[in-house]
Amino acid sequence: SDGSFFCTFASSRLSFFRTHERHVFRSLRSSWCSDFLLTPDDRHLIVAGSRELRVWNIDSKKIVHEQSSETVRFEKIALSPDGRFLVSGGGGSWDSEKRRVIGDGDYAVYLWRLPKDVWPDETELTASHSSS
User: Fold this and answer.
1) Which of 4, 52, 81, 107 has the most CB atoms lying inside 10 A of its own CB?
2) First to last CA, the chain
């Protein structure tokens, strides 16, 4: 949220870099990833796979919440500004020649309420937004 670090995914590893340094300062091993994002307070990383969603605590490197489904796709995700709700959707891929989405999937959008222990601390969010 403050731009001090960013995350990448490659070779089954989520790597965290500080913007002013060139080396990884933290990494998490994940066998899959179609999309990921940080919570507004930078405490959690939400990682989406085809039919699974995991929420990692960045400091402890532990999974604090998992969601899986036989029918729901977690291809793309987005967070509400307050960090309490997650939007997921997916299925198929864009065919530029046919100019439409093709392939497997339910093509639906889902709204999820994240567990309270993942919600950002209100005082941290207020402080980080007022200092920017």
Assistant:
1) 52
2) 10
